[in-house]
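Field: COMPLEX_INPUT
Field: COMPONENT_COUNT = two
Field: RESIDUE_TOTAL = 527
Field: MODE = joint
Values follow.
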Amino acid sequence: MNPYVPILVIGAIGFGFAAISVVAAAITGPKRYNRAKSDAYECGIEPSPQAAGGGRFPVKYFLTAMLFIVFDIEIVFLYPWAVTFDKLGLFGLVEMMIFILTVFIAYAYVWRRGGLEWD
Amino acid sequence: MTATQQLLGTDPGWIILVKGLIIFVICVVATLLCVWGERRIVAFMQMRVGPNRVGKFGLLQSLADGVKLALKEDLIPKTADRIVFVIAPIISATTCFMSFAVIPLTGTVQFFGHKTILQLTDLPVGVLYVLAVASVGVYGIVLAGWSSGSTYPLLGGLRSSAQVISYEVAMGLSLVAVFIYAGSMSTSDIVAAQNHWWFSVVLFPSFVIYAISMVGETNRAPFDLAEAEGELVGGFHTEYSSLKFALFFLAEYVNIVAVSSLATTLFMGGYHALPGLGFTETWLGGWFTMVWFLAKVVAFFFLFVWLRGTLPRMRYDQFMQFGWKVLIPISLVWIMVVSTLRVMSQRNVGRMATGGFTLGVVILIIAASSLLDSNKRRKAREDELGEQLPPSFPVPEIPAPRAEQLNG
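Field: COMPLEX_OUTPUT
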């Protein structure tokens, strides 16, 4: 059998449980309307009409996400190399050193330019 | 195809279904027990008693809390995006169970007269799959924070997602050395490769980096900045109530158990017994291996609770700097060192050369760390004097209207 089928099974069980819980919550809980209940929670003061920044994400987080993608791709290249490491021998080691050092230069640049700072 | 893949490939459909249900039940029961256990242990650490009224030793406390949550009103704020608001907890709760599909909970056992392993499937890319599922789980957090249409959840969701993806890099890098030594990404092969020595001993730095990043990955104290009560109320799930909130809570604890299970599988020899107690593995027809597995997972969970009881919360900028500027470079250097040592041992370059290389690396690390230290001290002195030196690298000029705004 395809080894990915069992993943669908556990996924379906988890999804079923979550979906039933969400539906059940609407049935089992009471419903007493009150205007204050549907306001955004801001510790009791009058809530602002919108989330901070109009509900948009600050650009700082996109920078983090892009750095994450750079390193995630590095990891994606590292994994197959690691699995076949013993077969590749010295050649694979040297190649991967060059690759890691190349990414390291970019990393040092980001660090120097303050891309890793939070203020 | 390995032996485990062949063995699991012959499972009939009903066994897969039963195993899926067993794993699901284990996760849910583990969550209930973990919540209770955490409250009790933290209580004892703080010289309190903790929940001890509902059931024996308070064991049913979390179940009672769950029932109570189900009987609470299910609120959706009027600023919320209603569809995404409902989908987000479902994503979180679904993905947290899925990472268990590749974790081997026992050795070979008799399962209703059928020889199998309590592991749903054995993928050749098993660990990569776990990381992938964990990444999908981030969507639940981001969408929950965004769709609430409220300030605190938005900030909490952003913090949480930035934190999870930052520490996932460190986590991913810490596993590379494991794959080099096991020669495979399949969880069962990795467990088999730890027959003689656990990877937590052989690859101790990898283990330490993984242990730190798993705490960051699950948003737990001292890295629980996403729900720093003093700053953000409850973080991304502030607006959630009733069972939707319970789903996020469940997902958090199932994720803790999942990263602990992965740590057990990759570094602590998985379901194998402690060294010297190998004879216990045949007890109960092989089912006793599950006791070992769960014991190791409980040990990791205790570590989580211990950290929470001991350490104060970190500041967010320090926390992100720690991930990006400490954990990631250390893992990269460690990968290079360990792979070089491995090639050296393959080519039989002799003890002298290996020792010389190790010594060289140690000296380089000491030199680099002392350089960083003196740099930091210089910077601290500059800050004290209040002198702001212009940066030595070129900085693009700020456009005129924006500059006026900034300068008042």
